[in-house]
């Protein structure tokens, strides 16, 4: 993969995903190095100044009134990192920490933090070497930056703490850096503080989630089309002129996607031609209203992406070196903008999955499936079919509703009431990641169920009456899961289709 040049220009969500998840190599631009040298000169001019400058000659947080003598100012930075690397709990995913490090690196190269180029170069070296600090899930309140997670990363740059190498082996940071030929950094004045004051962790999670949710919406449109077709629904409600009557952002796009997936379906045509023994004027909401719900998720995602774009164009530190050379305190590290949209997306993801589970359930009820076996069982009674697969989806949806409770409405004061309102954005990001994983599994169960229902409806792929798009989807599913038959071990089948959803394999049609 081509090397990504890190400059003061904003990153994109795709840039971050490629570095964090796909190990894209990076390199600092000449402009980045020049901007850091320029702002470092401002900090160097303050090193011996007896007047108080936060982060240079004072303590931190509630200890900001404590004057630090000149000989102790470098030690101040090391002590800050060691004391703030206080995370606890389950280890955070590698890609989250890599995204956090890339975001902090990008803020450095804007020239607003006052760090030396060697610090940024060392961060880039760790990322390129695949060295990832071990960080626990607890420790950030989403204000004053993602303090504990960022401190663990700074600690690794100092050659301290625990990391995982490119092979995933846990080891002391000093050993990993030595093996990669990376010299640990001796932090200078202000640099410790500059490495931990940012929304970098929550922004990285938002960036990756925005791409994952974009894929999730497209899969949901496909799954809905499969359910409409498999349940002998109508495509009339997806007509463009009907959605033009309510021009909500995203709604028409989802309707068009579902229409496209259904185009050329012999099953849909058979309903229009009255070839079935039932008369149904309207489909259930989970079928008929899919564009309205999926479109609302698209709209929510677009808003979240606008927040991420603004954050990618930001330089967050406290104090910050301004463009005219002042060193000023500020509150830009507060994570509220990012925390809010992380929570908003968790609500949207939960609802997307909730509607999907309802479509799955319709396939399994003989009173609503229009001729399919109860629970899609091969021999109902002897076999249970997808009965418990629906339980799994229902259990996940219930969990997603709990995860949709916002983290950002909570605040617990810290630092002796100096930091008396915090965002909890880090927690919002972690729970959104869990929500996305759950929704992917719910959609996988719907696709697995719809494919089985369609096979039972038309006799399988050799006699497929599905649209070209859905026939192609069924064909992909059948490469990892066998067609209908007596009950078999179903958990691996759910996982196999989940991996198709996660990889976007169903969208390459």
UniProtKB/TrEMBL annotation:
SUPFAM superfamilies: L-aspartase-like
Enzyme class name: lyase
Single GO BP term: L-histidine catabolic process to glutamate and formate
An annotated GO cellular component: cytoplasm
EC identifiers of the protein: 4.3.1.3
GO molecular function: histidine ammonia-lyase activity
Reaction it catalyzes: L-histidine = trans-urocanate + NH4(+)
InterPro entries: Aromatic_Lyase, Fumarase/histidase_N, HutH, L-Aspartase-like, Phe/His_NH3-lyase_AS
Pathway: Amino-acid degradation; L-histidine degradation into L-glutamate; N-formimidoyl-L-glutamate from L-histidine: step 1/3
Name listed for the protein in its UniProt record: Histidine ammonia-lyase
Species this protein is from: Neomicrococcus aestuarii
Lineage, opening ranks: Bacteria, Bacillati, Actinomycetota, Actinomycetes, Micrococcales
